[in-house]
Design brief:
Distance between the termini: 75 Å
Number of helices: 10
Bound molecules: ligand C2E, magnesium ion
Strand content: 15-25%
Largest sheet: 8 strands, mixed, barrel
Number of strands: 17
Strand order of the largest sheet: 7-8-10-11-12-13-14-15
Structural class: alpha/beta
Order of helices and strands: EEHEEEHEHEEEHHEHEHEEHHEHEEE
Oligomer: single chain
Length: 376
């Protein structure tokens, strides 16, 4: 309309300045934009779906200065995103507190690496019988003095948004490789290490070279490394994705799909990608011994995955009954609190093939109140 300014703030963020609107009229504009953004976009042969999240801030009720208005709109947009996206939300002052907390966390996050506040914990991946440790998944922990442990589900998205994920991702990979190489060096039986990689890390066209440099630097062999990526990564440009995965695979690095079943991808989308394994999300593993629905979802995934020569890993195995059921279903690998919570590397006193993953009562770290030790 008359007097409306549309501008691009950067990346995929836009600002629209509407003069003389009311809450109602702004709401209607919001609806209209969401409706337009929901239309599929044809690109060559394909239809792409994009969406939008909108935050609205009002002058003069919310702020008098333009910087603050934009910041408030951004805050509200963030809330819209958090609420699942594809909606508009009006700014309210109660959002401010959450945002200042977020900002504080963001500032701390930027300093966390140099202050050495990150640690890597390890959780074993077991064979189908749950007897032998095949490898370990590296899971990052952030100890923020005064606040305690900040869960990765909270700060990884923040790190992704701010771009610090590249530095953190390098640190995780370097540390995990160093540990794994040291275990081998010390003569422990061979185990692999699985490292979570954020989709954003793959945006770096030099990601494969970064991985190679870290392998070289730490003396880690590519065959000992597995990278876990989530399905959301498949939503990106397929030919670029496929190219990078292929290069990683050619070097001997394995790729697995994490949290499988929670996203929008299907196994058929993995068909032409060099994937080694799918890790079925723990929400499907829960009570698999009694939950009929979960059992049938998992056996369907498993049948298809096996027909495509993919290994299947079950995440979040918590009980013996779940373990028994999964063994019956011919699941290839198992991971979960039943075997061990993630623990500090020094608590994996020796990494050797042993059925003796002793479970203790609550111990240091870990969420499950269970620490593991290898011993017999
Ligand atoms: P994920 O990769 O799916 O990791 C598994 C998560 O499930 C871990 O949570 C682990 O502690 C938890 N878990 C393991 N066994 C059980 C179980 O039996 N029951 C239940 N309820 N939970 C179990 P955590 O360590 O809090 O990590 C959460 C997520 O944060 C990870 O999910 C991963 O997506 C992300 N993350 C962790 N470390 C890194 C990292 O170094 N880089 C990146 N990019 N993401 C990471
Ligand atoms: Mg993972
Ligand atoms: Mg997972």
């Amino acid at each position: 309309g008359e007097g409306t300014v549309i501008c691009r703030l950067g990346g995929d963020e836009f600002a629209i300045l509407v003069a003389g609107g009311t809450r109602e009229s702004l709401g209607r504009i919001g609806e209209a934009i969401l409706g337009a953004a929901a239309e599929p976009v044809r690109v060559g042969e394909r239809e792409l779906y994009v969406g939008a999240s909108i935050g609205i801030s009002l002058y003069p009720e919310d702020a008098a200065r333009v910087e603050e208005l934009v910041r408030n709109a951004d805050t509200a947009m963030y809330m819209a995103k958090e609420a699942g996206g594809r909606r508009y939300i009006f700014y309210s002052s109660s959002m401010k507190e959450r945002v200042s907390e977020r900002l504080e966390l963001e500032t701390s996050l930027h300093k966390a690496l140099e202050l050495g506040q990150f640690e890597l914990y390890y959780q074993p991946r077991m064979d189908a019988d749950g007897k032998r440790t095949l490898g370990f998944e590296a899971l990052i922990r952030w100890y923020l003095p005064g606040k305690g442990y900040i869960p990765p589900d909270l700060f990884i998205p923040l790190a992704e948004e701010t771009g610090v994920i590249h530095a953190i991702g390098d640190w995780v990979l370097r540390t995990a490789c160093r540990h794994c190489a040291a275990w081998r060096e010390a003569g422990h039986p061979p185990v692999f290490v699985a490292v979570n990689v954020s989709p954003r890390q793959f945006e770096d066209p030099r990601f494969v070279e970064r991985v190679e440099a870290i392998l070289a630097e730490t003396g880690m062999r590519p065959e000992w490394l597995e990278l876990e990526i989530t399905e959301s990564f498949l939503q990106r440009d397929r030919s670029v994705v496929a190219g990078m995965l292929r290069r990683l695979k050619d070097r001997g690095i394995r790729i697995s799909i994490d949290d499988f079943g929670t996203g929008y991808s299907s196994l058929s989308q993995l068909k032409n990608l060099p994937i080694h394994a799918v890790k079925i999300d723990r929400t499907f593993i829960r009570h698999i011994d009694t939950d009929r629905k979960n059992a049938s979802i998992v056996s369907a995934i498993m049948a298809l995955a096996h027909s495509m020569n993919l290994r299947v890993v079950a995440e979040g195995v918590e009980t013996e009954a779940e373990l028994r059921q999964l063994r019956k279903m011919r699941c290839d690998e198992l991971q979960g609190y039943y075997f061990s919570a993630p623990v500090r590397p020094e608590d994996l006193r020796s990494v050797r093939e042993t059925p003796g993953w002793r479970k203790r009562g609550s111990g240091s770290g870990g969420r499950g109140g269970m620490t593991a030790q290898i011993g017999d």
